[in-house]
């Protein structure tokens, strides 16, 4: 073992692997921030959800769709500056010690192995997106803790003083820091910590068991050639244990649902969408395009389409379309007749009926017959307007319209994905949950 004075000298001179990993984490964080907008602001606040998704964060649906790099990259990614500093402080405080004890090669191996195991465990147990070096950090911490306990046992056996490696305290401090950070930010991933810790424990047993066997062999009698290893003295079984642990976690591939994959693809598309998010206040400047130049987005034509859907029993789709039209009418978007109080009354009445799965009333049919518009093909009633509104950046409206289109054609999962993408960009969690429920129901049949 290494004396305390000797360890301090070595910490100052030899910690190349630790500093290299820290450097990679910092550079990757700065690079993602540089690609995400205002560089200085992003450094402090973090690159943001969409940027993390775009650059490889752990997201179960995307992993299940084949993007396996998302099981590797998150161990070098961080949500914000505080997240980065907490993890890099932990890595600096214990990585250098581990590197001196076990060598830079074992440090690199353990960082990668515990990071992967942490992400595999997170993939198996937690659905939400996550990033961070915490899995690797907990792996190194627990591995050092096993080494400390082994060193204490040896010191007691040979009646020598211990080296005073109080990793229990270091472990406690890092656990507390991560828990505090976890309550402060929603990115906290206990499953990643658990997976990394389990890998670290097994790796620690492998290192100490190998050392113990070598020591036992050296100290044995002249008949050492007849010395036989017991099962748990074979250090390779612990490496096999790490492998089997990861296989167990990866069995969750078979439990990933279709809706999770669709949602993953949707948020990835949203992260790459460069359109500006427009509000209802911006509608007026596009009135010529949406009312005069395009028949499928003319509100009166859309109202005729909504009544057609209602009359033919497509109640859920009709409700979505009615609600979009009521929003447009309330925003004074469209002809004078369409934005009148009478149209608003008719739309509210139609919404109540459709929500109750009740047939359309003659009053509504008579009112719509007096409109100057005409009916588009059923397949175009929601889908075509949705595409144009999404292209322009009215994502709240396009989300509702794509949800309407999906309700009319549950086999077209592209509509569901576009609806989720739109609601994500509009930051509408109610819309996301509603379309996800619809996708789940559709995949039951």
Could you provide a short overview of the structure?
The chain has 445 residues and is mostly helical.
Protein topology:
Blueprint: H1 4-13, H2 16-34, H3 39-45, H4 49-54, H5 60-64, H6 81-102, H7 104-125, H8 134-157, H9 167-184, H10 190-219, H11 236-250, H12 258-272, H13 287-293, H14 299-311, H15 315-330, H16 341-355, H17 362-369, H18 383-392, H19 395-408, H20 413-425, H21 429-442
Helix pairs in contact: 2-3, 2-6, 2-7, 6-7, 6-8, 6-9, 7-8, 7-10, 7-11, 8-9, 8-10, 10-11, 12-20, 14-15, 14-17, 15-16, 15-19, 18-19, 19-20, 20-21
Task: Describe the structure using short key phrases.
445 residues, mainly alpha, Rhomboid-like fold, 21 helices, transmembrane, protease, Rhomboid_protease_S54
Can you give a write-up of this model?
Its main location: membrane. This protein has 445 residues and is mainly α. It folds into 2 domains: 4-256, Rhomboid-like (Rhomboid-like fold), CATH 1.20.1540.10; 279-442, no CATH class. It is built from 21 helices and no strands. The longest helix has 30 residues, at 190-219. The chain is elongated, with a radius of gyration of 30 Å.
* Strand content range: under 5%
Provide the CATH top-level class of the largest domain. Answer: Mainly Alpha
Please trace the helix and strand order, writing H or E for each element: HHHHHHHHHHHHHHHHHHHHH
CATH topology category name of the largest domain: Rhomboid-like fold
The total domain count is 2
The CATH architecture name of the largest domain reads Up-down Bundle
Structural class: mainly alpha
Tertiary shape:
elongated
Mean pLDDT: 86
Helix share bin: 55-70%
- Let me know the largest β-sheet: none
Unreliable runs: none
Number of strands: 0
CATH superfamily caption of the largest domain? Rhomboid-like
In angstroms, what separates the terminal alpha carbons?
Answer: 64 Å
Radius of gyration: 30 Å
Number of helices, where a helix is a run of at least 4 consecutive DSSP H or I residues: 21
Domain Peptidase S54 rhomboid: 66-208
Keywords: Hydrolase, Membrane, Protease, Transmembrane, Transmembrane helix
Main location: membrane
Pfam families: Rhomboid
């Amino acid at each position: 073992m290494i004396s305390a004075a000797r360890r301090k000298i070595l910490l100052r001179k030899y910690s190349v692997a630790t500093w290299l990993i820290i450097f990679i984490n910092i550079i990757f964080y700065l690079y993602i921030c540089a690609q995400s907008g205002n560089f200085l602001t992003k450094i402090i606040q973090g690159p943001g959800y969409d940027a993390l998704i775009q650059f490889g964060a752990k997201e179960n649906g995307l992993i299940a769709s084949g993007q396996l790099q998302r099981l590797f990259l998150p161990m070098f990614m961080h949500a914000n500056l505080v997240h980065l500093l907490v993890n890099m402080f932990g890595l600096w405080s214990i990585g250098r010690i581990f590197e001196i004890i076990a060598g830079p090669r074992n440090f690199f191996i353990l960082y990668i192995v515990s990071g992967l195991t942490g992400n595999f465990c997170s993939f198996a147990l937690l659905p939400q997106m996550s990033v961070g070096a915490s899995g690797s950090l907990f792996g190194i911490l627990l591995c050092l803790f096993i080494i400390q306990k082994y060193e204490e046992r040896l010191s007691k056996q040979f009646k020598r003083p211990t080296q005073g490696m109080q990793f229990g305290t270091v472990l406690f401090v890092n656990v507390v820091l991560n828990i505090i950070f976890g309550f402060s930010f929603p990115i906290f991933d206990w499953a990643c910590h658990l997976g990394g810790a389990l890998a670290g424990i097994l790796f620690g047993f492998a290192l100490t068991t190998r050392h113990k066997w070598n020591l036992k062999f050296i100290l044995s009698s002249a008949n050492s050639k007849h010395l036989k290893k017991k099962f748990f003295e074979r250090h390779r079984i612990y490496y096999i244990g790490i492998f089997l642990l990861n296989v167990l976690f990866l069995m969750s591939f078979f439990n990933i649902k279709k809706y999770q994959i669709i949602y993953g693809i949707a948020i990835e598309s949203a992260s790459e969408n460069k359109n500006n998010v427009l509000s209802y206040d911006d509608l007026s400047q596009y009135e010529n395009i949406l009312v005069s130049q395009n028949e499928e987005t003319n509100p009166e034509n859309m109202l005729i389409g909504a009544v057609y859907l209602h009359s033919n029993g497509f109640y859920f789709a009709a409700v979505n379309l009615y609600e979009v039209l009521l929003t447009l009418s309330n925003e004074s978007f469209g002809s004078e007749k369409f934005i009148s109080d009478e149209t608003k009354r008719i739309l509210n009445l139609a919404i109540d009926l459709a929500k109750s799965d009740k047939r359309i009333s003659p009053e509504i049919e008579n009112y719509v017959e007096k409109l100057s518009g005409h009916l588009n093909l059923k397949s175009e009633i929601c889908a075509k307007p949705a595409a144009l509104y999404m292209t322009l950046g009215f994502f709240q409206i396009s989300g509702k319209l794509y949800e309407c289109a999906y309700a009319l054609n549950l086999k077209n999962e592209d509509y569901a994905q576009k609806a989720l993408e739109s609601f994500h960009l509009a930051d509408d969690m109610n819309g996301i949950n509603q379309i996800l429920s619809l996708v789940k129901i559709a995949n039951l049949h």
